[in-house]
Amino acid sequence: MVARGKGILAADESSGTIKKRFDAINVESTEDNRRDYRETLFRTREAMENSISGVILFDETIRQKAKDGTPLVKLIQDAGSIPGIKVDKGAKDLAGAPGEKVTEGLDGLRERLAEYYELGARFAKWRAVIDIAGNDIPSGYCIATNVHALARYAALCQEANIVPIVEPEVLMDGDHDIDRCYDVTEYTLKSLFDELYAQDVALEGTILKPNMVISGKKCPTQASTAEIAEKTVKCFRETVPAALPGIVFLSGGQSDEEATANLNAMNAGHADELPWALSFSYGRALQAAPQKAWAGKAENEPAAQAAFAHRAKMNSLATLGEWSS
Ligand code: 13P
């Protein structure tokens, strides 16, 4: 999953999220359209073989077949990439905590993991959402309940021989500055690793998918690439044990190029400070360009594949610290 020069394609948009993405390109979100679009990505041999170590799928996709009847999972495997599965059931309102969320999906998870293993999944993802765009949030209660659920999920994955990706996402929505993001990310990661320890999760078989330490989208002073790289690496060195094999970032609403530039700055400027592989698990930052190029038309598939291959290659270079704009 964190092989040199490779990262993960997050193609696990839930039905609601993929509808939003398709609305933006005027494509109806039907089962066939979702299949056609994702098939186009998974058939991009150049990207899949050289830059993409694994693909996170949604429940519908792991069961789908390509137009010629080949399971989509097989397309991924044949390209030498690993199929993974999103297993959480989404962030729901946290009782008694206005504006905060807790991620659900633990009930029946052991049985679902066994089925996903049979379907070919070898890793999984669970996303917790920490919103900090308000005066009194996040609460300690929100972080404690979310990291507790992340650790329960991770322990169940390891029991099922599935590698857990633990994703505590501190959102970049809001006008907070980078230091506020730093503080909340630091607290969240410390809490997460305490809880993984308490629940006996093996860090050697766990991957972290965090946000970068970054300014809120509406913050009037936006931190530079160099500051983002420096503060993100510092924050992780303070909180993430060296036993963890890898950290794969979410893009979280950064532009395609920002997500690449920030990752590159960490790997280029801080290489000797990193005990873990630092790579990507991007959704939007890998897919915005191919979605736009595709626009729901079969004749645009080569253009969509070229756009995907380009972003995958740029991010691959960023994992090596070799990207330039
Ligand atoms: P983004 O890169 O679009 O944030 O998506 C990654 C992801 O999987 C969020 O859970």
UniProtKB/TrEMBL annotation:
Say which family it is in. Belongs to the class I fructose-bisphosphate aldolase family.
Its lineage opens with: Eukaryota, Sar, Alveolata, Dinophyceae, Suessiales
User: Which protein, by its recorded name, is this?
Assistant: Fructose-bisphosphate aldolase
Q: List UniProt keywords, sorted A-Z.
A: Glycolysis, Lyase, Schiff base
Q: Pathway it acts in?
A: Carbohydrate degradation; glycolysis; D-glyceraldehyde 3-phosphate and glycerone phosphate from D-glucose: step 4/4
Q: Which Pfam families match?
A: Glycolytic (PF00274)
Is Endoplasmic reticulum found in the keyword set?
Answer: no
In terms of superkingdom, the source organism counts as Eukaryota
The cross-references to InterPro entries, in alphabetical order and at most eight, read: Aldolase_I_AS, Aldolase_TIM, FBA_I
NCBIfam families per UniProt: FrucBisAld_I
Per the UniProt entry, the Enzyme Commission number(s) are: 4.1.2.13
**Catalytic reactions on record:** beta-D-fructose 1,6-bisphosphate = D-glyceraldehyde 3-phosphate + dihydroxyacetone phosphate
Q: Which PROSITE patterns match?
A: ALDOLASE_CLASS_I
